[in-house]
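Weekend entry, working from home. Most of the wet-lab plans are on hold until the incubator is repaired, so I used the time to fold the two sequences that have been sitting in the queue since the last round of cloning. Logging both here for the record. First:
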Amino acid sequence: MRDVRLDGSTLTIADVLNVAREMAHVDLEKTALSRTISNRKILEQILDNSPVLYGINTGFGALSNKRIPKEDLAQLQVNLLRSHATSVGNPLPKDVVRAMILLRANALVKGYSGVRPETVQLLVALLNKHVHPLIPETGSVGASGDLSPLSHMALVLIGEGEAEYNGAVLPGKIVLEKTGLRPVELAAKEGLALNNGTQQMTAIGCLALHDADSLLMSADAALALSLEGLDGWIDAFDERIHKLRPHPGQISIAQTVRKLLKGSRMVRTIKDGIPDGVRPQDPYSFRCSPQVLGAAKETFDFARRILEVEINSVTDNPLVFGRDRTVISGGNFHGQPVAVALDVLGLGLSTIATLSERRISALLDPSLNNGLPPFLVAKGSRPGLSSGLMALQYTAAALVAENKLLTHPASSDSIPTSANFEDFVSMGPGAAMKAVRILDNSQHVIAIELLAGLQAVDLRGGSGMSVATKKIYNLLRGKIRPVTADRPFHRDIEQAYMLVKTGTVADIVRKQVSE
């Protein structure tokens, strides 16, 4: 963890994780803050001489043809936040809220939004004081940005709304008082600058992408363990094969699995010959894993490229160009780039789980598992009397089936808003929520594969595992006792799931790959 300094241009996804989950301290870069001050002064000068500036002295959306008198401009901004705080459902998790605040502050400090420095400073103070606005999860269609959830966030800045502080949910005014903070009195343009932006979908996306990277490493671990449990072939991961189809993701996955299985005596190679009655290659779900998981990895890389641009972008409207002394209306608040990226991220996650479920099924199937008992029933148990791990595959199938429904792209839809004036929206928050649900389902599926791999290795005696897979085995066995008879597996699944979700399994893979 390190302190994060915002300048509007150099924020990284790692910074977002540090602030959102590790509670890193946040500062504002002085030059960027000076730029904010300068552009605010220019906006005020333009406002004094301009008859019409959208959202500054007009109504919003379809009401932009309504001119607002100067004496009502501050009230206009307050009314905007109040009227747009309409989200419903469960509160967003604390890490998402913190990421939203951070991203909004980073966008504002670039200086093009025309806010006063004290407004940005109060946003940062919320982070450093651990004040987390209560933001219901559903209410944004992703254009003009995430208006509703950001309005819930911004209400706390003016002493309204609700926030979580020290484990209690309190009115915004009381939380500010408890933390020694003073609410801001919004000036012209500031309400619009606070709630125009893509920060809900982008915040969720950054956190989900980090967890997706971890999941992929856990999937590599599960694949390696399952290959040993299957008595499978390592040759499909040979570097020479993948150099002939040099997709970066494919090459990376094959290399990772080779490193994880280095020194293993529980996988076969063509160099040792093919015994009579042994198939010379494994099912696609094993043999084609580099090609399939590699494609999933590249969906993550695509999402990463979009999010890295978005977290350092100005995403509200209108924008103040101080050097040119002009205010221009545009559409940077539109969430379509992020929505598409998160739909693609969800597809990649779903692919990982779908492939994993097929490997689980193969390990349980006596026609494919190379001599293991049906459904991996425990030694000494009678198949039929004992069901073994049969029902674990049912759960994996249910999770994968839900994923397949969720991979329908949210960004392909649009429901016009604001009397058809805002006539094409991104549905980016929907894409973000779907990606998180697919991620959680997929973490459970990989957990189930790890359990199946453990049992398969145990049934083969466990002798000859690689150094890496032995570490993975020992990690899991430290939480989950061996299967000696049928038992409820719910707790076992959840124990393995937590090791996947927290990145503990991925840490072993990460260390092995770096050596």
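Second, folded right after the first finished:
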Amino acid sequence: MKQQWLHLACMLVVLSLTHVATAQSGGTCTPGVAAAVLDANNVQATVYNTGSLFYGAQGNSGYEIPRGSGVTSIYAANFWVGGLVDGELRMVAGTYAQGGADFEFFPGPVPPTGAASTDCAPHDRIWHVSDDDILRYEQTGALTADLRDWPVDLGAPVVDGDGVAGNYNLAGGDRPEVWGDQTAWWIMNDTAGPHWYTLTPPIQLEVRVQAFAAACVPELGTSGLDAQVQEAVQNATFYRYQLTYYGDAPLDDAYVGLWMDPDLGYRNDDYIGSDSSLSLGFVYNADVFDESNTLQAQYGYNDKPPALGAIILQGLNNHTGSDLGMQYFISPGRPAELGAVDVVHSARTVYNLMQGLWLGFYPLTYGGNGAGDDLGLGPTKHMFSGHPPAFWSEENIDGHGSRSEPGDRRFLMSSGPITWQPGEKQEIVLAIAWAQTNDRLGSVRRLKQHAAVLRGYYDSLARYDLATCSTETTTPVVEVPDGYAFTVYPNPATDAATLRVHLPISERVTLRVYDVLGREIQTLMAGQTMTAQIIAMPLDIKSWAAGVYVVRLEAGPYVASRRLVVR
């Protein structure tokens, strides 16, 4: 019923459009039908090669967590890109696309210049390889089809074992580059078929996607704050998009975005929010009990409502070395009118939303439902940016404790703008995190802690490593006060690392570094009073010996240690 209603709404919106009502394309391919499942940890996530995540042709939710519970936290998600070529809007986007008809990415690489693709079927595949597959091959010689056919010719990454660049020789020691414990890899483009959703010409993008999951961080143990890192990793999945633009002219004012319909168990009692310091958009339960609706096959989390978030770990690069992160967070259907503008089937509307603009080209404003500047606080980039229950969150939309009406939410997070040159490559990395405590707002706190540690440990997962470790944690995760966060990245590091500290209030801060024998290596701060802020402190480690170090932070009630691996 949900998708039928949505597609009726789509048809009504399309009929009202005044722009050209025919799809524009260089090819006649149909969207792919390939799918793969990530299930290395506490998540079971089904991915597709259509630009859609977790939502396939059958219209089923594909993000189950905890794995095996039958309860899902996301109904659908989709990767969006938009920009202008000589002033003409180009988009690739989608939402539900019943049967896949409206998805705008197609299997395979961008066709050669001037060629029109008519058959994408040979590339309609997602290659899926795990550490277990590789270890089984090394121990017994048994081969999975995807390990055997790893598509190095299409750009799939390979760990070179035979010293010959560009080939794939398993017997000689070459291996697929598995990130985490399990990697799914595919290639897609927006050129080979019609754009029935946005009705724009194709951008001419080729996208190589690496989706992966991990059971743990091998170099960490299972005690104290290490357990918090392991919990974050066990409840997360990652998505790395490598995009190449093959247009003839620059793509100006270009944005990328993640659109999501996050049904957190029972869908009609949700709230959303954002944290720009973490490039995080999230969903949480609006009341203390997440019920079930068995008639609609919606199963809730009962008296322990979790929180789920999407994180832009790496956004568009603006050519000055700056990662733009999450520039905008907005709800395509504002809480007061969910359903009325939920399906955004106009390319201009889609593009506006990626720039933090509503349907009538007016900006997102701070407070209320984000429209009309009811509180006179002016424009903003991030909707519901307060930490709940503070203002401005759905728990407090006016500064006086007024709450939004709970409901079925959507959100869009975007990065940009940049001018994208022909032939230029960009890399976008997304993570989806999930946290559950005995309290719904406690779940939001824990989610933000998870988002912070995933930033610090992403590099540890994003490398070929067959090391294994236990996924069981016997020591309780350490709770920390609201608003504090501490990460060290990249990790492992070689020449330099960055310490990132989020202080919600003014505190006296002490930061010291120790080696594994407990000897103090460096004092970075010693009781220095810092105002509420985000501190990003570079750490020069070029002269340090390879090994494991501990960075210890004391800030008021918050005491935390982070391991830093130097190579």
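Plan for Monday: verify the second prediction. Confidence is low (pLDDT under 50) at residues 1-21, 335-344, 470-480.
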